[in-house]
Each structure stands twice: as C-alpha cells, then as structure tokens.
Amino acid sequence: MQKLEFFLRRLGTSLFVLIGVSVITFFLARVVPANPAALYIGPKARAEDIERVTKLLGLDKPLPIQYAIYMQELFRGDMGTSISTKRPITEELAGRIPATLELLFSGMFIATIIGVPLGVLSARWQGKPIDVGVRVLSIIGVSMPAFFLGLIFQIVFFRNLDILPLAGRVDSDLRFSNPLTEITNFILIDSLLTLNWVTLKDAFLHLVLPSLTLAAYPIGLIARMTRATMLEVFEQDYIRTARAYGIRQYVVIYLYALKNAISPTLTVIGLTFAFALTGTFFVEILFNWPGLGLFTVRSLLNLDYPAIMGMTLFGASGYVLINLVVDLLQAWIDPRVSLN
Amino acid sequence: MKRNLFILSLFVLLTLIATACGPAAPATDAPAAETEAPVVTEEPAPTEAPAAGPIVLKYASAANITTWDPIASFSTEAAYMANMYEQLLRVNPPGSAEEFTPLLAESWEKSEDGLVWTFHLRDGVKFHDGEPMNADAVKKSIDAAKDHAGASFIWLPLASVDVVDDLTVTFTLSYAQPLELIVGSEYAAYIVSPKALDAAAADENYWSAGLSAGTGPYMIESYTADQELVLTQNTEYWGGWEEGQYEKVLVTFVPEATTRQQLLEGGEVDLVTSVPADSFASFAENPDYTTSLEPALFNYTAFFNTLKAPLDDVKVRQALSYAIPYEDIIALGANGRGTQSRGTVPAGVFPYSEDVPQYTYDIEKAKTLLKEAGHEGGGFSLRLTYASENATEETFAPLIKDSFAQIGVEVTIEALEFTQQWELAKTDPATAQDIFLLLYWPTYSDAGADNMYSMFYGGAEAPYLNVTKFNLSYWKNDQYNALMDEAGPLSGTDVEASRAKYTEAQKLLVEEAPAAFLFDTMVAFVNPNHVEGFQYNLNYPDVRYWFYELRPVQ
Amino acid sequence: MTAIPILPASESASRRTVRHVLAVIMRDPLSFASTAIIVLFIFMAIFSYQIAPYPEEGAGKTHASNTLLPPSADHWFGTDKLGRDIVSRIIMGARPALIIPIGVVLFAVLIGAPLGALAGYKGGWLDEVIMRITDLFLAFPSLLLAMAIASALGRGLDKAAIALIISWWPWYTRIARGVTISLKERYFVEAAQAIGVSDLVIIFRHILPNTISPILVQATVDLGTVILAMGGLAFLGLGTQPPSPDWGLMVSDGRTYILDQWWIATFPGLAIFIVVLAFNLIGDTLRDIFDPRQYK
After folding, report:
1. Do A21 and C248 touch (CB under 8 A)?
2. SS3 B412
3. Closest CB to C62 among B278, B394, B398
C-alpha cells in the first residue's frame, strides 16, 4: 500500500512538472525575436500573405488562448507544423527518434560496460595506481567537449587511418545493393531481423565513432559513481563479515558488493542518459546523424518556434520520465531507499 | 515499469550482440580494401555494374526541402522540383542559339502592345497522377500561383488567364512585360495537376508526406526528411526515354561540405551540390573530375541607410564605396568565386550592361571624399548587420570593418537571423542599421523588374519602402524612378531600348551610391567524368542538375 | 545583538572554509597543477592585450594575405581563414570562454543560494513554491533549456550567459536549502531565534555563510560543465558572435577545414579541454572531501 501511494505521489509530481514545463516552453518559444509568419512564408512575401499566414498559424489570438489551443492540439497528438519543413512536428520527431535512440543506447551501452568495471577496479584497488589511473581517465572523459572529441576521432579514424566512415547512419549505396525492410526504423534491429548482414555491418561501423564520442562523458560519470558506491558497500558490516569468513575476495566484490551497488549505479546510469541526450546534439551535428539533435539545432538556428517547442517539451518529458522510472525502479529494487 | 526495464534490457542485449559480432567483420574486410587501394589504374566508381538493378544516380545534396507544394515552393527544393514539374517554357542560358525551350507550350505569340499572350499547349501530356495537362490545368495552376505562391509577386503584371480551347490559353497583362521570363520562372510557374491542387486546397498537409503531381521526367518514390529522397522515372514522360538514362535518383541530404567531398572522393555518390571551397583546386587537378566555375545570378549588396546622417550625404556614401576591399572580399569571402558587381544587375541577366561603372578600392580617394564631406579623418561609427546563417557574409563583414577603420570609420558588426535583420530594417530607419548586407537574386531572369525595382525603387512616403520592402537604403530618387517607369513596360515590347533605359538608371544608381555593390557570385561544379550531360543554366540557380539530361558513361 | 557569543562569527567561518579548501588543493599534486593552469589562463584572459602576439588579430582584425598558414615560428598555432593568428585568438578568447562562465556560476549562486536558504529556513508554503519552481527548471536537461533560452533571446555572448544562469541557479537553491534545513535545528539558530534576531539577519549572517563550503565545492565542480556548455553554445552559433574570438566558435569555424587545415579547430578545442580538465580535477578532489551532494 505504501508502495502504491509512493508511486501515485511520484506520478502526480511528474504530471505537475510536465504542465509547468509546457507553460515555460510555450512562452519561451513565443518570445522568439522574429515574426513567425514572416519566417513561415519566406523573405519576399507580400504584407497580405503575411497576414494570411498569421491567421493560419493562429498568431493573431492572445497568448493564453494560443496556449490553450496548443495544449488542446497537443492532447490530440498534434504539435503544430514546422516553419522550416512545413511538416507536422510529431512526424518530424517520430521519424528521427529511432536514429537518436540507436545512438543513445549504444553510447550508453558502451559507457556502462566500460564504466562499471572501471569503477569496480578502482574501488577494489583504492588508492593504488590503478585507482588514480581510472580517476584521471574518468575526469578526462567528462572534460572532453563532445564536439572536439568527435572531430579528433574523425581526423584519426577517417582521415589518417581510413578505417571508419566519416558520417551518416549507413552507406547510401546499400539502399540498392542490400535494401533494408523498415520494421522498427532502428537500422541495427531491422537488419538483424531481416538477416541483412551487409547493412548490419555497415550500420555498426557507422555507429562506432558517434557512440564512442557520446560515451566519453557517461563513462567518466559511471566509473566515478560506481567506485563511490562500491566503497560505501565495502564498509558495510556484512561485507566485512564475509571477508572475515574468508570467502574469496573476488566473490565478495562481484556478488555481494556489486549486487548492493546496483541500485545507486542504476540511478546514475538513468541520470546520465539525460546528459547523453544533450550530448547527442553535438554528436549528431558532427556525424550528420539524422536524429533529433540535428533537427533541434537547426530549428534553434532557424527560429522554428513550433519545432523548438516540440523538441524542448519532448526533451523535458523524456527527462522527467527517465527520472520517474529511475525512482520507481529504485523503490522496487530497494524499498528502504526511497520510500521516504 | 517492468516493461520499461524489459525494453531497456532488450536494447542492451541487441547492442551487445551487435558489438560482439561487429568488430570481427571489419577487421578481416578493411585490410583487403586497403591493399587494393594503391592500384589506382581503374576507376573505382561504378561498383554495382552487374546489370540486374536499376541505373541509379546518387547525389549528395545540401539543398533542403522546405515544402513539397509546387505552388508554395520558393526555396532550395527547386533542385528537385525542376526535375518533377515543368513550366510552359524554359529560359535558356545566355548565349544559346534559341532564347527559350518550349516545354508544356509548343508555341506562343504576343499582341503588338505586348499585353496579350497566347500559348498553344502540347497535346497528350499527362500529370503523374494520370490527369490530362490542358488549358484548364494551366489556368488553375497560374491562378493558384498568383493567389498564394511563395513567389506570387512575379504575377503582379498579370490581369487574367483565359481558356480559349482545350489546348490554347491566353495571358492578359495590365502592363507590358517580357512574359516568357515570368512563365519560365524557377518558382511559382509550374503547371500542376488540378486534382492535386484541389486536394491541397482541402488539406493543408496534403503535400507534406512527399508526393509529386507534375508532368516532369521524375516523380517521388519515397522521401525521408533530412535523410533521403528517391526519385523514379515517370515512364509516361512526353519527352520519352532512351536506354541508359537514370532510372532512379537517390538523393541523400548531406549539409556538411566536407562530408560531401569525402563521399564524392570515395565514389559513394556520383554528384554533390558543392565541395569545400579549398578542396576545389585538388579536384581540378584530378583527371577523374571536370570542374568549372559558372556565373550565378546571386549578388551581395551593402545598403547604406540614406535617411541617417552621415550616410544621407552622397559624398560619404561614395567614400565608403571606395573604401570597400572588393578583391579581398571575393578572395576570402567567396574563395575567389565571384566578380565585382556592376550595379545591382548580376552578370548574364537582363538588363546587365558592361557600361555600368564600378568603384575601385582606393583608400586615398575615400579619405579625400570624406574630407570634402566635412568628415576629415572619419570619426563616426556605423552599425552593420548581416544574416547570421550566411557564412559568406560572416567571413567578409570583418574585412569591411577593418578597411573602414583605415579611414577612421568605426564599424560594429551585428549578426542577426535574416528575418530579424529584416524586421529591424523595416521598423524604423532612424533606429535601424546603417549598413545592411544582403544576398539577393532575381526571382526570375529579369533583374530590371526585380533587383532594380525591388531594391532601389523608392516608394511614395518616407521611408520609401516599396511593395517588396527591399529598398533597405530607404532611398528615393525621382529621376531613377522615372527611368524605371519607362524601362519596365518597354521590356515587353523593345528589349534593347529597355536595356538602354535600365543602364542609364544603373549609372545613376552607382553615382548616387545608396548601396555598395559588392560582388556577383559564381557556382563551382565538380563533376566526375563517369557521368555526362551536364548543362548549366544560370536562370535556374537552385537547379544544379537536370537528371533527365544526365547519362552514365559506358 | 551582533555580539551574541554563542553564534559562530560568520566571517571567520567562511574564511576557515576557504582556507580549508585551499589546503586540500595544495596537498594534492594534480589539483595543485590544475590550479596553476587555471591561474595561468585567468592571467592570460586579464592581460590578453599585453600577452597576445597579435592582439588586434585576436580581437578580430583580418589579415587577408596570411590566410590559412600552418603553424610556424611567427604563428605557433597557424592562422585561420581570415589570416588571424590563432595563438592570439585563443588568448583573446579566454575571456568569453573562461571568465564569463565563472561569472555565470557566480550569478547562479547569488540567485540560487539565498532562495534556497529562504526556502529551507521558512519552510511551509514558501518552501513549497520555491522548490516547485526549481523542480520545473530542473525538469529540463540544462543544456537544452539553455539552448532554447539563448535562441529565444537572440544570439550573443551576453544572452548565452543569461541563458546559462537561468538554467543553473536551481542547483544551488537545492543545496542551500538542504544545508539550511540541517542547520535550522542547531542550537545557535534556535538561540538566535529565541533572542529575537530577525529572520533576514539569521539567513544572511548565520545560515548562508555556513552553506559556503558545499556550494563552493559544487560551484567548482560545475565550472567545468558550464565552460563546456558555453563552448557548446558558441559552437552551435548561439553564443559569441564572430568576429569576436571564442574557443567554441573557433572549433566550429575550423570544422570546415579539419581535413587539410587541422590546426584551426584543434588548438582551441585543446584549450577548452585543458581548462575544463583542470576545473574537474580540482572539483573531484574537493568533492571527495566535502561531498556537497549529501544535501540534495
């Protein structure tokens, strides 16, 4: 019962936050210092055309009413039409989500499989050179601007070594030699499902540099956090007891300690997701990755306010949702931690 | 919640599998490619030669799609539109034997006074959706364009379009104009299926998925925004098809010039919109490519705010015009791809004339003129705005600043999104910018009716913005306006007499210097030798390639 | 009433914290080296005009005949598209890339910390309102919010700075509130309340100074992130506008030339990396010892 109450309360707060977020986003997008109607129609428009578009976009109504209309449409699944592409925002976002998620998940996957072991090693040999090494490595990871790291990767692996592709999701050639049946729009999954090995390999190669660039920051965070939680766990009585009983040390570390460190590590991974989400902006630009980030940045520069609104709302909702999931998961795994 | 975790672990698992089986493959594969590479005797490009698949043209393009609506279209998507839609006729590049190529009109004639034009349409042409192309379709398309096209203003001279019979249509003008140039426009002149126009009128998102309803040689097969566009042959095309023409065109959108360069060099694509300026020279030396620099009808103008002191003084404006380092601007801002403008009419476009003078870069003369104007040693400061999305302006604006500093004029540079820059300019000249950098091009191939009118014809009242609101010098000169009033209608009946009047007006323009005329741009083409049939047509600046004309070299 | 002996004197409390922090930094060789690097860069930013070999080019003056020169004795890091010396551009770019982020964090602390102290001290509906507002701001990924604000305000260094302040202050509100709640029950605050010291005086004289240590640590940790964010905004075109120098902007400019003129993007990128690394190394040491996150 207590659990259910916690869930409901947590859901309630999230809902409140989302509504607030929509208000902030809406007004933020509307102070954009340019006439959206003029943007919509392009530079050589006549005054009467601008007037027509102003009406069409509902910009002649007072702001609160515009907001009400926007929310009403939003609940019907309509986020308006992009000024620069003239396509529905929902379509624009939906078409780009798979690309971004593919990048995000593989980046986070790399970060996790590298970050967690590094953190464990570091904790196991606390204060030893290996710990210092991991520390410096982690800090380098979080200090490297993604837009610079990606550039270096491109210079090294494309220009100098020529072993990895420069940009894009998959070679355009493959469209005809090995056409891919689109099922989920995740190239890796689709090519796996349809046993299209050539495309799978190519998509994988294209994914390497962007994911590594994206992973650098989370690797550092995850390693540091894993180390910290492992150290805490080591201090707890039952681990000491286990050690005293002479259970071989690696069993202690990997079974007992890691199991107890899972919950906080999960939190970190969840939160790092959000950091990685903004990281994708830079990575997508550098690698011409046709995802949300590329779209967002272009919209920001073009002052495409419906797109900015849609994307900010989407990003914030995703963030709130991840936080919610992390909290709930945590409560589920370890009820003692979060119920208060 | 459990579901979320499940999905999460599913992804992790899938990525794990991909990671596990991935690295092995490239490791065995890549070195093979590496060792083969140095043997450069053979052209690497046509790898998919085994005939089974369609003949595909691969194009890495920087041109975005802002709309698939052929009426509204007024931007870079013209690159593809022009391959799917047709006008009544096409304007040929300067120097061609014939001035025009008939497309949907087989022939046409005009009345003595140049006001009534009769077009005889091609028989048996069908739109992509199967509808017949006829006089009704033409009337409906042009009416729609006049009503709500992105470039609807090009139809200002048009009074009415009338259907005479199924294949004959007349255009009646309210004042004489060279109508061929208008019906041949890159924008707002396509003939579109009436069925599609009706559907689009009922549903504003009709076009957004990406469909085509023209008469042109290609149609849209699929479109994924920001990723790719596939065009396929319109097998019913009236022009017919030959063996060896491209059956499909695969366009991938690649905004980064560096990436396009790599794709082209790697043979992964056949064509690109452009490569980074500094890689152009290496392509020029490569025997596998043919490069060319062609004049484009874009030009850069720096408007002076003539309503504000000290720019209200013609001497000051002339001084500044002498203080602009034209050569450096072209060399650095445009990587040498440009020529100093002669007035506002770009080279190669009516009514361009070699008789229009240019300012030279002459700091001493500029100083003398400033002194004569009572501003010895400068001592004033100016606010310059440019469009932040324009990398060329971003590059050359500092050159103007540094050069003006030499005559004691301080410039503050301000980057604004174009619409903002323009809003600022239109609100109140007293608080607006002093210098406005603008990239401009005539909407259709008549810079007299467009550039000379749009940018310099003073409207009735201060700040003299005319209907186009591009008179960003806020300049009004009665003599200039009078010359323009004569030259415009004359262009519909006597082209050379009209050109002479326009030239007179341009001389006045340069003398009065309401703006500095910086440079006309050039476009650079890098074409691999395994594709032939390139035709450059200055009149259609956004259309770099006519896919129908191209053939793979066997 | 300022002379109540049982209240710890605020000035000495904060001074003690600062001294403690400094001691921690001096003990750790990495932190010490990092501090030296940061001091060097700040020195560079302040005296940029005196240090830069070509200060005018650093500020944006073009040199048409020197375009795209590779590194040499005259131009250690080469020149860019407009012939400007990259060493000078980096030195002059230290102000927007380094000093402005420091200002951003400072302002965010000045806004966030008093609000947090107020919320924690007063509790009740005021606490609720303030914390719900911070929740709202924290609901956005910081950089996304900053990008949206920066684009709404219009491009420019000042606007980017404001956008970052708006995105960052809530973090300090949270910390200050956490510390305040833990202090509230302590004897000296109760004693002060008992003898009728006004709330404002309690907050500003007795509570805020005690929040300095965790906030200082958090601010140091954040500085690296804010510098990265600032560089990111500039890289995207939403920060410093050309021809002014800025590291993020220089990386973005140099991107067109990475295949042939690698130096244009590489050196400013390294500058960002080194500075951020230095801040993060210090922040990491401080966090190990103080751990400000316990208050969140």
Report:
1. no
2. strand
3. B398
Residue among C113, C253, C132 at smallest CA distance from C180: C113
pLDDT 10s digits, B46-79: 444 444 578 999 999 988 888 899 998 888 899 9
Chain A: give the shortest CA distance to residue C12, in Å: 32
Residues from C contacting B (CB-CB < 8 Å) are 60-62, 64, 67-68, 81-83, 154-155, 237, 241-243, 255-261
Supply the mean pLDDT for chain B: 87
A137 touches chain B (CB under 8 A): no
Answer left, alpha or beta for residue B339, where phi above 0 means left and psi between -120 and 50 means alpha.
beta
Q: How far is CA A75 from the centre of its chain?
A: 24
**Cβ contact, residue pair C61, B420, below 8 Å:** no
Contacts of A296 in chain C (CB under 8 A): 144, 147
Phi–psi pair at C71, nearest 5 degrees: -55, 140
Which stretches of A201-314 are assigned E, i.e. beta strand?
none
pTM equals 0.82
Burial status of residue B254 (CB atoms within 10 A of its CB: 0-12, 13-18, 19 or more): buried
Q: Tell me the fold of B56-69+199-292+525-552.
A: D-Maltodextrin-Binding Protein; domain 2 (3.40.190)
CA-CA distance, C274 to C269, in Å (whole number)?
9
A32 at C interface, C-beta within 8 A: yes
Size of interface A-C (CB pairs under 8 A): 138
Question: If one looks up domain B78-195 in CATH, what number appears?
Answer: 3.90.76.10
Asked if the model's pLDDT at residue C237 lies above 70, the reply is yes
Q: How far apart are CA C256 and CA C81, in angstroms?
A: 10
CA distance B387 to B390: 5
Instruction: State the Cα–Cα distance between residues A270 and B204, nearest whole angstrom.
Output: 41
- Nearest-by-Cβ selection for A140 from C142, C148, C277: C277
Class of domain B295-522: alpha beta
**Are B78-195 and B295-522 equal in CATH topology?**
no
Of B65, B151, B250, the CB nearest to A175: B250
Positive or negative: CA dihedral B416, B422, B428, B430: positive
**Helix axis angle, C208-236 relative to C142-153, nearest 10°?**
60
The CA-CA-CA angle for residues B410, A302, A61, to 5°, reads 110
CB contact under 8 A, B269 and A105: no
Among B262, B402, B415, select the one facing C62 at the smallest CB separation: B402
CA R_g for chain C: 22
**Tokens representing C213?**
């240590």
C228 at interface of A, judged by CB pairs closer than 8 A? yes
Q: Locate A9 and state its tokens.
A: 């309360």
For residue B280, pLDDT beyond 90: no
Class of domain C99-283: mainly alpha
Closest CA–CA distance from residue B531 to any residue of chain A (Å): 17
CB contact (8 A) between residue A25 and residue C148: yes
Q: Helix A292-302 crosses helix C208-236 at what angle (to 10 degrees)?
A: 90
Q: In sequence order, which residues have a C-beta less than 8 Å from that of residue C194 and are 6 or more positions away?
A: none
What residue spans define the domains of chain C? Answer: 99-283
Sign of the dihedral through C-alpha B122, B128, B134, B135: negative
Q: Domain residues of chain B, as ranges?
A: 56-69+199-292+525-552, 78-195, 295-522
Q: Which two tokens stand for residue B524?
A: 């650079």
Residue with tokens 């191209």, as numbered in its chain: B550
**pLDDT(C8) > 50:** no
**From the CA of A202, how many Å to the nearest CA of chain C?**
23
Cis peptide before B541 (omega within 30 of 0): no
HEC readout, B189-225: CCCCCHHHHHHHHHCCCCCCCCCCCCCCCEEEEEEEC
Q: Which value does ipTM take for this structure?
A: 0.85
